Amino acid sequence: MDESTRLNKFQALLAEVADLAFFPVSADLEYLVGIPRDIPNYGAVMHPGAWLEGAWLTPGHAPVLALPRMTAEFGGLNQVGGIDVQLLGDWDDPAVLVKEILAGFALPPAPKIAISDATSGETIVALHALLPKATFVSATELLRKMRVIKSEAEIDIMRQAGAITEAAYVAVCEKLQHGMTELDIVSEVDYQLRKNGSLGPSFTTSLYCSGPKHPLLFGQREETWKRKLHAPVAILFDFGAIYQGFCYDFGRTVFFGEPDSEYQRIYKLVMDSQAAGIAAMRAGQVTAAEVDAAARAVISKAGYGETFRHRLGHGIGMDVHEPPFLTADDETVLQAGMLFTVEPSITQFDNFSARVEDVVVVRKDGGEALTAGHRHMLVVD
Fold first, then answer.
1. Contacts by 270-274 with C-beta closer than 8 Å and gap 24+?
2. Tens digits of per-residue pLDDT, 143-163?
3. In this structure, what is the dihedral angle of CA atoms 356, 381, 209, 309, given to the nearest 10 degrees?
4. What ranges do the domains of the chain cover?
5. Integer distance in angstroms from the first to the last C-alpha of the chain?
6. Exposure string (b/e) for 236-270, b if CB count within 10 Å is 16 or more?
7. Is the pLDDT of residue 29 over 80?
8. Which end of the chain is more exposed for a tag (fewer CB within 10 A), N or C?
9. DSSP labels for 110-132?
10. pLDDT value at residue 170
């Protein structure tokens, strides 16, 4: 489905529920009309009048992209073709420009406005001041009906994102050696992602390292990044590439030292759990909860149920995490073309852990993993 088809389909959906839609620069907007995103920042970066930044459209009117001058020029968005771009000068009043845009839509006195879930509170407050009788609904919910099923062309893009991710993983593994810090490895992953064709990491690259001498610590990067990794330790990778606006998510486990028989059993349990989950992903025949249960049963029956601490997976596409979710309470029936991560794990805070993760497309007879290599445990001895 190309952007023109997406836009026409969305406008038809919009006509059933709202008079106007607004999307800030986001995955929703890139999906709909191809406006590219940039790599996000830790702290907020904004320009005067940033609340109007995004596309405004109605069921019968093409999008109008409103941008502060600096966003347009320094972000290169003033070069985007095929869309009406309205620029806000550095000293201009954003409310005046938005009022002019809205006037061109001939809205009713009490319009219904569909807004992206990524819309800022400042934008909503400003809109309400301009249209005090307006009511709001979610444009993201409307668009999700389209985004949740991926076309074969979109699946091919994700397959390429997976290939970039695997290439980066291979390059990193060639450099692994005892005594490296977690920061050494994370930095190498991010470098190799870019070197192999990614805009950057699709989310913050993570390592979950654990063993009797390496306690598993979540959310303490500034502490864990300094740790030197000496055998024996299990190193759990979690990272992904960006390609043509789509995000990948991937995981493998590497062991420094000689894994004992119990750890080899743990590793095999995780791999068998993933295989069970992927096999269960039969289009139209199973719910998300049932897929989660199929994978979880493998680990639970072996006595490690409490160490599988999270959902089996999540939808993925232009965002790293998208609904629906492979979790115990999600009764969504899986449909052909849905993409999910399948990422079982055994995580132990004071002992060895293991995880695996691939993006999987739902098919008639079970899931198809878009990355399938490097499934045997890599041991760095």
1. 270/299, 270/344, 270/345, 270/346, 270/354, 270/355, 270/356, 271/356, 271/375, 272/298, 273/298, 273/299, 273/308, 273/344, 274/342, 274/343, 274/344, 274/356, 274/358
2. 999 999 999 999 999 999 999
3. 40
4. 3-147, 152-380
5. 48
6. bbbbbbbbebbbbbbbbbbbbbebeeebeebbebb
7. yes
8. C
9. S-EEEE-TT--HHHHHHHHHHST
10. 98
How does pLDDT run across 275-307, given as a tens digit for each residue? 999 999 999 999 999 999 999 999 999 999 999
**pTM confidence score:** 0.95
Q: Which of 40, 19, 293, 17 is nearest to 134 (CA)?
A: 19
Q: What is the mean pLDDT of residues 347-360?
A: 97
Residues pairing with 374 in the sheet: none
Element (H, E) at 72: helix 69-74
152-380 has CATH 2.70.70.10 classification: no
d(CA 247, CA 177): 29
Separation of alpha carbons 162 and 144, rounded Å = 23
Mean pLDDT in residue range 340-353: 97
Q: How far apart are CA 125 and CA 137, in angstroms?
A: 15
Distance between CA atoms of 57 and 150, rounded to whole angstroms?
A: 24
116 vs 224: CA distance, rounded Å: 36
**3-state secondary structure at position 336:** coil
Q: What is the pLDDT of residues 138-148, one digit of tens each?
A: 999 999 999 99
Selecting from 3.10.450.50, 3.40.350.10, 3.40.50.1000, 3.90.20.10, what CATH number does the domain 3-147 have?
3.40.350.10
**Same fold for the pair 3-147 and 152-380:** no
- Which regions of the chain does DSSP assign to beta strands (E)? 20-23, 54-58, 61-68, 84-88, 112-115, 135-138, 206-210, 233-238, 242-243, 246-247, 253-256, 313-315, 322-326, 339-342, 345-346, 354-355, 358-361, 368-369, 378-380
Residue 1 has pLDDT above 80, yes or no: no
Cross-sheet strand order for the sheet of 368-369: 322-326, 313-315, 339-342, 358-361, 368-369
Identity at 251, one-letter amino acid code:
G
pLDDT in tens, 55-111: 999 999 999 999 999 988 888 887 777 899 999 999 999 999 999 999 999 999 999
Amino acid 376 reads: H
